[in-house]
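Justification of resources, computational component.

The compute hours requested in this renewal are based largely on the per-chain cost of generating structure records like the one below. Each record pairs the submitted sequence with a full structure-token output. That output is archived, and it is also reused by downstream analysis tasks.
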Amino acid sequence: MQGNLIIKSWIMTLFGFLVLLLIAAICGSIGQSLAGYDLGGCFVSIVVGFIGAYIGLWIAGHFGLPEIFAINIQGKSFPIVWAVIGSALFTLIMALLRRAFTGTRY
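The structure output for this chain reads:
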């Protein structure tokens, strides 16, 4: 019976998943705009948004900072502010790496 309860806690509806992807895309796009560098299109913005959320939460946890403006989507929390900050940092790092390896600007 307890195994069934665990499975139900991880299930997200299609609509909830699409909303989560949309929020990640917006956060990734804002982070790329703040960094002044574009890594790619919509799919890349979604990936950058999720990576930025992980980087931002890691930084916040490392320095003991609170989760600021988190949106709860079907029990899953997505930190908006930390996702934008993490996305900007990730974009800056990728831009510096691309410039170091290619020697030119994008």
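The first strand starts at residue 70 and ends at 73. The helical segments are 2-10, 14-35, 42-63, 80-102.
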